[in-house]
Amino acid sequence: MREFKTHEYDVLVIGAGGAGLRAAIEAAGSGVSCGLICKSLLGKAHTVMAEGGMAAALANVDDRDGWSTHFADTMRGGQYLNNWRMAELHAKEAPDRVKELEAWGAVMDRTKDGKILQRNFGGHKYPRLAHVGDRTGLEMIRTLQDHGIHQGIDVHMEVTIIDLLKDGDRVVGAFAYEREHGRFILFKAKAIVMATGGIGRAFKITSNSWEYTGDGHSLAYNAGADLVDMEFIQFHPTGMVWPPSVRGILVTEGVRGEGGILTNSEGRRFMFDDIPDAYTSSTSDNEEEGWRYVTGDKSARRPPELLTRDHVARCIVREVKEGRGSPHGGVFLDIAWIKEHIKDAEAHIKKKLPSMYHQFKELAGLDITKEPMEIGPTTHYVMGGIKVDSDTQMSTVPGLFAAGECAAGLHGANRLGGNSLSDLVVFGKRAGEYASKYAKENGAGSVNNDQIQQIAAWAEAPFDRGDKAENPFTIQSDLQVMMQDKVGIVREEKELGEALEALEGFKARAEHASADVNRDFNPGWHTALDLRCLLTVSEASALSALNRKESRGAHTRLDHPDKSEEEAKGNNVVRKGPDGQMQIERVPIPPIREDLAQIIEENK
Amino acid sequence: MPQVTFKVWRGNKDAGEFKDYQTDITEGMVVLDAVHQIQAESAPDLACRWNCKAGKCGSCSAEVNGNPRLMCMTRMEDLPTDQPVTIEPMQAFPLIRDLVCDVSWNYEVKKKIKPFKPRKPDNEDGTWNMVQEDVDRVQEFRKCIECFLCQDVCHVLRDHHKHEEFIGPRFFIHNAQLEMHPLDTEDRLGDLKDDNGLGYCNITKCCTKVCPEHITITDNAIIPLKERVVDEYYDPIKKLFKMFKPKKPDAAAGK
Ligand SMILES: Cc1cc2nc3c(=O)[nH]c(=O)nc-3n(C[C@H](O)[C@H](O)[C@H](O)COP(=O)(O)OP(=O)(O)OC[C@H]3O[C@@H](n4cnc5c(N)ncnc54)[C@H](O)[C@@H]3O)c2cc1C
Ligand code: SF4
Ligand code: SF4
Ligand code: FES
């Protein structure tokens, strides 16, 4: 018998990024008891890294903006695979969620008349991103954290959930270990909100931290929940490429929003060469107009650098492939050039992009106010995730809710920059609200002790692998290389098939991942346990990518280079079959409501 | 660059020692990369914290060659590598293991500071008006990534262990951020004087020197807070006034 401590809550929130914190605040505020779990310290979740801003149609900078335009932009960006109801709710509720942050102490950059300032971002028709320089995520998470600690939420830091517990169909708890001493903890709960973020650690080049091993996706999947859109993984066009040790670290889209341009080794602004049909009417075809747009001229069209991320990433890959790349295999991103237009460009750049200035100065020894940066695509965000009800955020498993990056629906085939931070607070709030409602309407279930003992035994297995023991870091790194290679930015059937086959081999290797017998803060042990989640999300992505025989949004197939109307009629859903194998199904998209269809039409 | 020797602190709160590890250093590597490489090659249970690897989360604080630093922002090229590089945990907090300390005290301290309390909204839609010049200073403080390096280096905590009576520079910043917030109406000066140990700070400025966010902790936060406390409690005329005026004036005044 392995020992464990027990905590009991009405609502348990797993994950303390923007989505989890907002859900916990809502749940606690509605009078239920609430526990909040995170793998790192409070305030260190991925949300802290977000830079550019939070999209909300406040219309502070351009009064032509409104929820319907934001809705239409989100749908166009997602190439109409989005859950349209979520896109509607998000566009309508984001402004209130942003204002609420201000009421809780956030201090965002201001317009001249004292309102919240908004900046341009790719795919957004009007300047829409509320921001604080390029550290918007820090402002959001600190505001929620500082507000949250006074709401009676029980926070458990450096605790990792390793399995969900069910009573019949419904989830009733979660099993965990704490990092500090490796002791087990049982959390009983009437409702659970999953807010664990993304899966970027499945790839070699990524902007994501060690936490992003797809835990929430995998835990929910193993509890029987549907995952949807898992082929859609966003490769952000601008990650650092040099020096090697910083490869993948994000360079915010805000650089382009402030006027940064992309050039190839010939000095050409190659983004002018390929403007997709859906965007020709809103994209400038000359440099002069593009600059006017950046400086706020409302009659000008946006520069092509601000096209959607999937498209910009593909153009960069093309330039590099065709031999027009930068010395270290990227292209150039130049913000220094704005000195041709503004007098005090250096001070302006430092004010608008302070953390980019420091990041390059300190990590690459480069002054972005003087020289262009070298950048290339990096794994950034997963549009796919736990399938949820649009209004309540409940998954297909009763009592299990999801919000934030680990949930899916809002972004469809491609997420617009800035739409994640607003997603977190809009749907975090909803998840907290409805989880609390569920908890009030349902009693506590009972947990199965045998199941708990089995999980605990599984978790301790890496301490005793016998002579077949393998280093978990090696397995993880090999997996990342394989995924980058075969399920990366451009895909084809043969390689995706090979990836699925390779994953079987990795599953076998994961059974041998071993750790030194030491329970105190042991990263080797944690890496060994994380492998299971990484493998689930890797398989879900590869299988979904194989199944979608077209190129759309973030999903590019060499062997199916065009969009297919037939393929676009549904979303890929994966779930665990009765035999324990992963199954995939194409689920038709419900017909869009008439008034929303009209809004899309009007905004075309 | 060649192989470099690292002396890394290994141990828990009861016992520990520096252990030597060798690893290859390539162009552009930071200390955190070296630690990860050592983990992957020879010490998979070497404990350290990190998240963003870009100086944004404040997780990877440690002392590199005796200097409190973010490991992810300390380039190997800036260190002398002909001699061993020492890496040890922060000293102002209890050790958990290797490079990881128990920083939970900081989270407890923050809970005790009175939260943000805004004045009534300026506009009917529940919003406020603030101009950029009025929020610049507060934004400087809000850059804090809670790395706790300033806490680590402050002698009041590090050498004199006044954790019970003194909240440390990080939380003076936090107080300053709230006190100078244009919308806030709460009064924290009494707590600063009586419970938070503001008086213990003798303005050595060590905290400012180590702050990776380059926040001017002493000049912009601590000194103005000290002045406000003096004005509020020790200025004889103010003191007289205080006897006659309601406890907390309208928010806008004095902020
Ligand atoms: C560098 C960077 C810049 C970005 N910039 C922007 C931007 O400008 N605008 C924008 O809209 N979006 C941006 N994004 C995307 C956005 O930041 C993320 O999608 C978003 O923050 C995710 O928030 P979340 O609440 O879903 O998860 P996170 O903030 O990642 O939080 C996940 C939480 O779950 C916890 N967790 C995970 N697994 C477990 C487990 N097994 N047990 C217990 N706890 C667990 C983690 O510890 C963490 O607390 C950016 C992302 C990156 C990486
Ligand atoms: S200036 Fe004050 S707070 Fe800062 S290190 Fe010195 S004594 Fe500590
Ligand atoms: S004030 Fe600076 S040194 Fe102190 S915790 Fe904040 S960022 Fe770190
Ligand atoms: S890892 Fe985030 S600050 Fe170093």
Kindly describe this structure.
The complex is a heterodimer of chains A (604) and B (255). Chain A folds into three domains: 4-232 and 383-441, FAD/NAD(P)-binding domain (3-Layer(bba) Sandwich); 237-378, Flavocytochrome C3, Chain A, domain 1, CATH 3.90.700; 453-573, Fumarate reductase/succinate dehydrogenase flavoprotein-like, C-terminal domain (Methane Monooxygenase Hydroxylase, Chain G, domain 1, Up-down Bundle). Chain A is an alpha/beta fold and 604 residues long. In chain A, helix 13 runs antiparallel to helix 14 (493-510) and helix 13 (472-486) packs parallel to helix 15 (523-547). In chain A, a hairpin with a 2-residue loop joins strand 7 (159-167) and strand 8. In chain A, the strands form five sheets. In chain A, strands 1, 2, 6, 7, 8, 9 and 16 form a seven-stranded mixed sheet that branches. A five-stranded mixed sheet of chain A has the order 17-15-10-20-21, with helices on one face. Chain A has helices spanning 18-29, 67-77, 84-103, 136-148, 215-222, 254-257, 287-294, 309-321, 345-352, 354-364, 419-441, 449-460, 472-486, 493-510, 523-547, 594-602; strands at residues 4-14, 34-37, 54-55, 118-119, 129-130, 154-156, 159-167, 170-178, 184-194, 227-228, 233-240, 261-263, 331-334, 373-382, 385-387, 400-402, 407-408, 490-491, 556-557, 570-576, 582-588. Chain A contains 16 helices and 21 strands. The mean pLDDT of chain A is 96. Chain B has 255 residues and is α+β, with helices and mostly antiparallel strands. Chain B has two domains: 3-100, Ubiquitin-like (UB roll), CATH 3.10.20.30; 103-240, Fumarate Reductase Iron-sulfur Protein, Chain B, domain 2 (Orthogonal Bundle), CATH 1.10.1060.10. Chain B has helices at 31-41, 104-112, 132-141, 149-153, 155-158, 169-179, 189-194, 206-210, 217-233, 236-244, and strands spanning 3-11, 16-24, 61-64, 67-70, 85-88, 95-97, 100-101. In chain B, a hairpin with a 2-residue loop joins strand 6 (95-97) and strand 7. The radius of gyration of chain B is 22 Å and the shape is elongated. Mean pLDDT of chain B is 92; it is low at 247-255. At the A-B interface, helix 3, helix 4, helix 10, helix 13 and helix 15 of A face helix 1, helix 2 and helix 3 of B.
